[in-house]
Structure formats: structure tokens, C-alpha cells
Amino acid sequence: MAGQPPTERADATRNRMKILRAAAAMIAERGAAELSLDEVAKAAEVGVATVYRKYRDRSQLIFALLDEQEREFQQAFINGPPPLGPGAPPGDRIHAFLHALVDRMETQVDLLLLAENTSSGRFRSVPYAVHHTHLSILLAQLIPEADSAYLADALLAPLSATLVSYQLKERGLSIDEVRAGLDDLLRLMGCPLSH
User: Fold this and answer.
1) Could you give the CA distance from residue 91 to residue 190 in angstroms, rounded to a whole number?
2) pTM for the complete prediction?
3) Does the keyword DNA-binding apply (predicted)?
4) d(CA 85, CA 43)
């Protein structure tokens, strides 16, 4: 699975957890846009150098906050029960996978928006690569003659935090309407939906 943390000393683990808790509390209180590494260090009661050694910039801290939920999500689609996990037809798994991504957007859109707009960006992130590979494999099973890598990019494009944030905040769509739009897109591709 992507995003497995390296082994670390007990004191480093304590400091990392203090930093992540402080960052999460700051985001919950003031929003993700206000996240500052210096303020996180102060709130976590660790040295600024400790924060910067672990997270060179804000984007690394943002990705670390998202990492635990990403690992749980990967576990669900790699080893979890169907239809998200193995055992369901490819079309059902694609449908469940995209809906699960929308569910994550609903709760994390501001944090994902910040992560997406960092110097490393969405397309260079490990989670994007894992999601893309997973979808490519399922699409190759569903439509063997198609360019599954291209289709995976095309299906992930509507799930950019930038677009979902715009749809929710500017267009006033509900998360159910975003899901319904994805279902329409899948139908246009000829992907069978049993849900």
C-alpha cells in the first residue's frame, strides 16, 4: 500500500502525533488555508526545527494529515468487502470506488484543495497514482479494447478538489448531485451500474 510511514523512534512518533493533532485542530478551528508550520510548532509545543525536519513545507504536512485516511481507503478497495473491494464485477467496483472518493471529498474538500494546489500537486501525488492504477486495472477488465490509462484520468478528473469545491460552493450542488453526475458519466461510457 502507498503511504506506509517509515519506522521511527518513540520520541519522533510522539512529536509527529503532536504536530498532526495540532494541525488538525487548527484546521478545524480556522480552516485549512490558515495553516502555518510555525504556528503548528507553537501549538504542538515542539521546536520549529522539529516541524521543518519532518515536513519541509506546508504541502507535506497537508499530505501527512490526509495519509491515514488514504491508507484506510486503500485497504478498503484492495482487501475490503465488495463492491468496493474484490469480488464484485469491474463496473460495480468502479462505481463504488468513485462514490467512495466523492464521500471523502464531502468531508475533506478544503484540505484536499490545499493539497491539490501545492507545488507537488495532485497528479504527482502517491494517492493519485494508486487511484489511477486501480481504476486502470478495473477499466481494462471492463473495456479491454479501450485505453484504460486515459479513461482512468478522465474518470478522476471530475473528482479534483477544485472542481468539487466549485460544484458544492459556487453551483450549490449537493454531494448526492455530484454522485448522480458521476453515475451519468459512467452510463455515457457504457459502464453497467447495478446500484
Assistant:
1) 9
2) 0.76
3) yes
4) 39
